[in-house]
Design brief:
The chain has 258 residues and is of the alpha+beta class. It has two domains: 121 residues, Phosphorylase Kinase, domain 1 (2-Layer Sandwich), CATH 3.30.200; 125 residues. Helix content is 42%, strand content 18%. It has ten helices and eleven strands. Strands 1, 2, 5, 6, 7, 8 and 9 form a seven-stranded mixed sheet that branches. A two-stranded antiparallel ribbon has the order 3-4. Strands 10-11 form a two-stranded antiparallel sheet. A hairpin with a 3-residue loop joins strand 5 and strand 6. The longest helix is centred in the middle third of the chain and has 20 residues. Bound molecules: adenosine-5'-diphosphate (ADP) and magnesium ion (MG). Magnesium ion (MG) binds next to loops.
Length: 258
């Protein structure tokens, strides 16, 4: 099978070796069985190009990202660019079905990168060209408190939408890895690998903790906004008991006034 590979969108085309392709699609442990299966999947998905580039390094290659379940690379299918999540060979699951199912539920209310296609080992979805919240704050030239407040409110509203349909994301306490801010300050929640529609929901509570109470993002935001932490803690307690729109609106009001 011929698979033209590029090192970077903007550089000259540099083909990578078959062994580098094998490294990416069978990360971290190569086996000929997995490689054959995965090459067939690449073929059936119609992936014709893998575009290298991004902040994560695998050997001498740069890719979009890496987690415990997958590597994410940019790919081209019929001249359109997508993000492709490749199941790691050491992932604690045998396929991507459950993640796809829960991601599909999120998509049904307009949350998460739009899913395009999937196989056992690959998920093809919208590529989000975005920044983490910390990087977004760093990159703002005229950082206004209004803009920061707006991002916080938008993240929380999306979390509330997930709470309302009882889909618990599961990793929003590590918000910096799971929210990307793209052009026009669009907020994107990514990665539904730890999600559940059976567990107690904690999207709003986890995201509020990370944004306003503890950790690196909260420290950064508290340096910009005047967040009354005690009031937030009180209202979060109420919301935890009764995740009603009334309690959620009270939380938003406190943020808006900060
Ligand atoms: N659709 C996407 N668009 C752009 N970057 C993405 C996308 N999905 C994931 N990423 C990047 O890849 C990283 C790893 O993906 P993730 O889904 O979190 O993998 P894992 O389930 O293994 O944690 C993310 O932290 C993010 O930086
Ligand atoms: Mg992840």
């Amino acid at each position: 099978m011929h698979l033209p590979l590029q090192k970077d969108l903007h550089s000259n085309k540099i083909s990578i070796t078959p062994s580098e392709l094998a490294t990416i699609i069978c990360y971290p442990n190569f086996s000929i069985e997995d490689y054959t299966i995965r090459l067939n999947e690449i073929h059936s998905l119609g992936i014709n190009t893998i575009l290298f580039g991004g902040r994560t390094k695998i050997g001498r290659m740069n890719i979009v990202g890496k987690g415990c379940v997958g590597l994410v690379v940019k790919v081209k299918i019929e001249d359109k660019i997508y993000a492709c999540k490749i199941r790691r060979t050491d992932a604690d699951r045998k396929d991507m079905r459950r993640e796809v199912l829960l991601h599909t539920i999120a998509n049904s209310i307009g949350i998460g990168p739009s899913l395009f296609a999937h196989t056992e080992n690959f998920i093809i979805m919208e590529f989000i060209d975005g920044l983490t919240i910390i990087d977004w704050i760093r990159q703002q030239q005229n950082l206004s408190t209004y803009k920061v407040r707006d991002i916080v409110v938008t993240v929380l509203k999306k979390c509330y939408d997930l709470d309302k349909i009882h889909l618990d994301h599961g990793e929003l306490s590590r918000l910096d890895r799971h929210v990307l801010i793209s052009e026009h300050n669009n907020v994107n929640i990514i990665d539904f690998e730890s999600s559940s529609n059976l567990r107690k929901i904690s999207n709003v509570t986890s995201a509020t903790q990370a944004l306003l109470l503890n950790g690196v993002i909260a420290r950064r935001i508290n340096g910009l906004l005047n967040i009354p932490k005690n009031e937030i803690i009180q209202i979060l307690r109420l919301y935890k008991q009764k995740p009603t729109s009334y309690n959620f609106d009270r939380l938003i009001q406190i943020v808006r006034m900060a």
